[in-house]
Amino acid sequence: MSIDLSQSLSSEATYQRLAERFAPVFARVGADATRREQQRILPFEQVQWLKDAGFTTLRVPRSHGGDPVGHEHLFRLLIDLAAADSNVAHLLRSHFSFVETIALQPQEFQDRWFPRVLAGQIFGNAATERGGNALGTTNTRLKKTAVGWVLNGEKYYTTGSIFADWVVVMASTDGIEGRQYAIVDRHGEGVEILDDWDGFGQPLTGTGTGIFTDVPVEETNILQRKVASTLEPAFFQLCLLAVLVGIGKAARNEAAHIVATRTRTFNTGSGELFRNDPQIQELVGRLAANVYAAESIVVTAARELDAAHDPSLALDSTAAYLRAELAVQQAHVAAPKLVLDATSELFDVTGASAVSVSKSLDRFWRNARTVATHNPVAFKARSVGDYFINGTIPTGLNSIGDAKGAK
Hints:
This protein has twelve helices and eight strands. The chain is α+β, with helices and mostly antiparallel strands. Helix 8 runs antiparallel to helix 11 and helix 10 packs antiparallel against helix 11. The chain is globular, with a radius of gyration of 22 Å. The relative contact order is 0.11.
């Protein structure tokens, strides 16, 4: 039996060309990443470098002047960027996700927004509120006045918005069922984005409070929030997993560097240089294998997203969407532990000096732990188990708020 490898080889060659194209800018982004995190210096300059390099335009369709890449290639590049600086890769999650949303809108909407993406403009996100809103609703409101639509409310976890040109705000409107997206000018009247994220990881993602006070909104910039088989939630989640894998790769590289350059050893060890000690080599090898497994899982899930969107495969869309959603959910269950183990095992390849605050080796685990908490693994694992046991199609509430019965 012959096997046609031309497609997979072509795909790999495409990725290699893209990786070579962006490697210099990724290296530049990563060059001072540790110091920025230690001193809480937001990466405005680094985001601009990526915009100038065309990185933020990678999913604009060819019909709108883009040179688009597939999901596999985008997520592999996001992994590479996250290995350089996980904060920068993470803050672009909202941007790339909304570019996917633009492609699902009517032609007129695409004609207005894709040129802005090509011009280097990027999108932030403002969906979640701290509390007090019932599940499926928001306290942030859109209201039509005599002079047009206005937006009022306060959000948290506004990842990427402080760097953005536009903020996509989830809101509710009296008399309209469900929720809406209001796209507002980041620097417009009544928009305030604060850098008050107090998490112990991913501190430079601009994940803080967004305050919207009588913000004018053009009616054409209001979208009805629809929960459909568009794979938007799967794409959004896979962005996080790509960031997580990038953190793992950075920890692997750091472990190898520490061992390769270390000259001190222990009186309880073999007396060999660490780089020649079989037990230390094994530790680094196991760490590297965990990261490789996590990356393989995420890349495979990205390929399922590509397959679900590929009309040439003539797949049943419902089955293809389900397959892709299940792939991402299973990746979400499996990948975090592999990376968290790797970032913890980093400390086993060296001595007590590894805990020096000046070295910031804890940043890998802190950042990975922070990314991994975004969607509880237990809920994804339950969903996957229910499907394989009972055939229950995975569904999501696609909202965050107070549960029924909450006081």
